[in-house]
Amino acid sequence: MVVSVADRGPRRTVSDDQEHKDGGDFVAGLAARKAAARLLAAVIDARTPLDGLTDHENGHPQYKALDLRDRGLVRAILVTALRYRMTITGLLARRLEKPLPPNATALSHILHVAAAQILFLDIPDSAAVDLAVTHAKSDPRTVRFSGLVNGVLRTLARAKETELPAALAATDEAPKWFSDRLKAAYGPEKTRQILAAHRLEAPVDFSVKADPELWAERLGGIVLPTGTIRVEKLANAVTELPGFTEGAWWVQDAAASLPARLFGDVRGLRVADLCAAPGGKTAQLVLAGAKVTAVDTSKNRLARLAQNLDRLGLSADIVQADLTKYEPKELFDAVLLDAPCSSTGTVRRHPDVPWTKTAADVEKLADLQRRLLARAVTLVKPGGRVVFSNCSLDPIEGEDLYRAFLAGTAEATNDPLRQGEIAGIDPFLTSQGTLRTTPADLDLGAPKRSGLDGFFAARMRIAG
Ligand SMILES: C[S@@+](CC[C@H](N)C(=O)[O-])C[C@H]1O[C@@H](n2cnc3c(N)ncnc32)[C@H](O)[C@@H]1O
Predict the structure, then answer these.
(1) Cα separation, 23 vs 119, whole angstroms
(2) What is the ipTM of this complex?
(3) Which domains does the chain have, with CATH numbers?
(4) For residue range 34-44, what is the model confidence (pLDDT) as tens digits?
(5) pLDDT interval class at 198 (50, 70, 90)
């Protein structure tokens, strides 16, 4: 199984990389590997989300110092190293006489960065090994292990054809806390399917302003029963695709497009999109004819929301506020709360999530969501509707939270979603009348084309 890194631009050669200066010597590709190991340390040791580290404006300085092709390479290495972390750990462990001491993290990250390239990326083994050895020699924490790095990685490269299939089969790649939570919620078989889906890169979904059939053809995709366009693998960067500049569509997982549709007809209604940034659901609500107030606490994320709406030629009132303190002048006809959550439904796109979050984080985020939901229901007129959603797979943040919330409030009642009410969502409706999707859902015949982000959504009616 080899993952192409060709989308980062033309394959570079050693001479291409002469611009990188490290420790006084020019070493091709070393800066990218050092950045990859540094960022892997931030993810694994400091539990920092990968998206923030690799943000082109606010990311890690070592990442931002790289050119665009090297940034693409670093992301490819990291996504792969995290997606297959357990397989890589197992194969490295076989080659070590004894486990690395817990404080040998720098060495461990160098080995993982190189192993991801050797096992899964189309990078010559010799380049991956040599760069790892040079890297180890350049760091006082690892210099004395450079021989070990060389030996371990060379034998790994030689044995990969024979050992990799069994090593992949021996693990589900999930840290124990995560597979335990999934098994408790979904049972062993569905958990197996979800974790198998997490090993694959997600297809790319687009919400379109109009004419899905036309845009499916132009983008080389298919139209899903929900109206979203799905492209299995992009040939170009999103910004280079037809329709980007004129704002004909935006990237949004098919499951993420469902919550905003649960209101039905919103034409002329005043709708608050609480926790709105970067604005995928705001765009849907505006397009559907609502007068939208987009609220979010994050200035940076609201700037992205404004940029996104601008490109799409859509407008909304944008308010930077902490929802717990937000006091609108007037109550809204409807409110969408797409709450901050553990994001365990997005592991296909964000394989760092199981490594940066813990079971305790899930509980904490559920608590925050409970408070935000309690606030959200107070912002709606009597008889109005609230949709609560998040991209977690965990019932603690979804089904359980919602059931307990309804039991503890007289202000809102469940407004169950009905079969046949909204195009394409019937397979995902629960007996409670809520919506649940997982990466194991939406089988389109080929695993790489199938799946949805994990989402929970529910609709409430405010007492009249
Ligand atoms: C899941 S994301 C929202 C995604 C967005 N609805 C979309 O579809 O593009 C959650 C958002 O909640 C925001 N947030 C977190 N805590 C908040 C709070 N107390 N008040 C308002 N927004 C908050 C975060 O900044 C983040 O943008």
Answers:
(1) 28
(2) 0.99
(3) 6-169 (1.10.940.10), 253-462 (3.40.50.150)
(4) 999 999 999 99
(5) very high
Atom of ligand 1 lying closest to residue 260 CA:
8
Q: What is the pLDDT of residues 98-118, one digit of tens each?
A: 888 889 999 999 999 999 999
Nearest protein Cα to ligand 1, atom 24: 275
**pTM (2 d.p.):** 0.92
Going by the annotation, the residues of the binding site for S-adenosyl-L-methionine are 275-281, 296, 322, 338
Q: Can you tell me which atom of ligand 1 is nearest the CA of 323?
A: 20
Q: How confident is the model at residue 464 (pLDDT cuts 50, 70, 90)?
A: confident
Sequence letter at residue 90 = G
Q: What is the dihedral of CA 67, 123, 48, 274, to 10 degrees?
A: 70
**312: Cβ below 6 Å to ligand 1?**
no
Q: What is the CB-side half-sphere exposure of residue 197 using CA atoms within 13 A?
A: 30
- Asked whether residue 440 carries a pLDDT value surpassing 70, the answer given is yes
391 is an active site residue: yes
CA gap 92, 112 in Å, rounded: 8
Q: Please provide the distance, in angstroms rounded to a whole number, between the alpha carbons at the two ends of the chain.
A: 58
Q: Is 281 in the pocket of ligand 1 (CB under 6 A)?
A: yes
Q: How confident is the model at residue 373 (pLDDT cuts 50, 70, 90)?
A: very high
Q: How far apart are CA 35 and CA 298, in angstroms?
A: 27
Pocket of ligand 1 contains residue 296 by CB under 6 Å: yes
Residue with CA closest to ligand 1 atom 10:
340
Q: From the CA of 314, how far away is ligand 1's center (Å)? A: 20
Helix (H), strand (E) at residue 250: strand 249-251
Ligand 1, atom nearest to 273 Cα: 6
Q: How far is CA 313 from the centre of its chain?
A: 26
Q: Rounded to whole angstroms, how far apart are CA atoms 21 and 44? A: 27
Question: Taking 60 as the threshold, does the pLDDT of residue 20 lie above it?
Answer: no
Candidates 205, 262, 296, 369: which one to mutate for ligand 1, based on the most atoms within 8 Å of Cβ? Answer: 296
Candidate list 391, 429, 435, 442, residue with the active-site label = 391
